[in-house]
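Data availability (excerpt). The following record was deposited with the supplementary files.
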Amino acid sequence: RPLKHKYILTGHDAPILCVDIDTDIGIIASGSSDKTCIQYTTQGKYIRTFYHKAPVDLVCVSSEGKIATVCNELKEINLFGLNGGFLGSCEENAEVTHLMCSRDGKY
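Predicted structure:
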């Protein structure tokens, strides 16, 4: 049977580069070449936008609702909290090609 759109998530002004979904907590995050990561509910409701200084190449949603993003242009990994606050960042020496959060939300 054909697939149907359940929701259309809007907000990016350029191509989407990555998406992650945690159905247990009901969060979707998408990263774009417009230098933003947008957070939605799994019911399609917009929550917030995280602004970056470079395209968002990778995104990961933890089981605790934290969102990690990678901006390879800056060789940077960023972490945002459940309520949208910036928790910190670190620099990497090489391009990051994969990003995962542990099931327990600790890593």
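Summary of structural features: The mean pLDDT is 92.
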